[in-house]
Amino acid sequence: MNQQLKDKSRLAILLEILFTSTKLGLTSFGGPVAHLAYFKDEYVDRRKWLTDKTYADLIALCQFLPGPASSQVGISIGMLRGGILGGVISFLGFTLPSVIVLIIFALLYQTFTLGDAGFIHSLKVVAAAVVLHALIGLGKKLTPDKSRLAIAIGAALIMLLYPSAWVQILIIIAAGLLGWKLFKDKAESKIEPFHVSISKKTGVASLSVLIGTLILLPILNNTFNSSLLNIFDIFFRVGSLVFGGGHVVLPMIERELVPQGLLSADEFLAGYGMAQAVPGPLFTFSSYLGTMMEGVTGAVVATVAIFLPSFLLIVAALPFLSELRKRAAFQGILMGVNASVVGILLAAFYDPVIKSSILDGSDFALAVILFALLNVWKVPAWLIVIIGVAGGYVLQLLGF
């Protein structure tokens, strides 16, 4: 009888997690910062699942990890509430609404040859405005001094001269080493401890799976001629190495897909623009890309692959992060890595964003208006998409 009550109670908890996270997945527009505000209102203020302090600790944890920070916070809350299964359910509820919309958009794009539609080009102009807005915001936060600004500029120059996915990874590693050397003295000394029930043994096992998969996937991909395996390899690697949030996924994935001919630059940017219009994490851009390459099956593979490292990293980091965050060397490494992220995004802003979206004066004028609405008037990104598409049609009707 007691076991039955426990099972019912656990089922009720899991259903509650599913309901709450799905509601957030349907309504959380505005990007990762806005997502965190929605989470606090729902999980902390309304449902009291965790305290303000614990929530702040979770945010700090996820800022220190590669991957989508808001998704990782949601996964972490699900794990604290309902164990690892609770984390999975929390992720599904928050992510599936935007996954479904982007898959449908990709299928329509292919079926009705939407590449020639006027609104597709408008979406690319929207992408230019959004990336510039993200770039300025990241720059202010992650390159506040001359040393980190120099790292960002150096990273941008190298990426523009040698545009490849492997060069990008080498830049991140080199920036981390520079950060360890240069920024140890700038580390914060007062950091709140983080307490979690996951054992260090489980954490080590999770990290081992992550590292082993990163090593094994390229070997398997080179051995077997499988398009789905290739997709999993690409997106798993990107999900493991993207620092700085959703917008930084743009250059990481673009270097893996467009130069290899898996997608055209136009197809890539159209999906990125559409991804701004849906709620939930920007990493669901992978669902669109997977659909464009291998249909719905490709979407599932790409989505699982890009988010799986987040699960493994959270389980691996939770038992150790409280100690690591106190170490000056660790903080210094992350300062360097985050600075290089700004440079990588700056290079991507030129190629492919500007090169593929700003073709004439009217495109530039529309992009400036959209950027001003984002940066000055704080119009949400999903509304910017609507305004951008409408503005594109107006310009077309006026003969521009």
Automatic annotation (TrEMBL):
Name this protein carries in UniProt: Chromate efflux transporter
Record key words, sorted: Cell membrane, Membrane, Transmembrane, Transmembrane helix
Main location: membrane
The family this protein is said to belong to: Belongs to the chromate ion transporter (CHR) (TC 2.A.51) family.
Membrane topology: Multi-pass membrane protein
TM region(s), chain numbering: 84-107, 119-138, 150-183, 203-222, 234-253, 296-321, 328-350
Top-level taxonomy: Bacteria, Bacillati, Bacillota, Bacilli, Bacillales
Localization per Swiss-Prot or TrEMBL: Cell membrane
NCBIfam families the UniProt entry points to: 2A51 (TIGR00937)
The UniProt record lists the keyword Zinc-finger: no
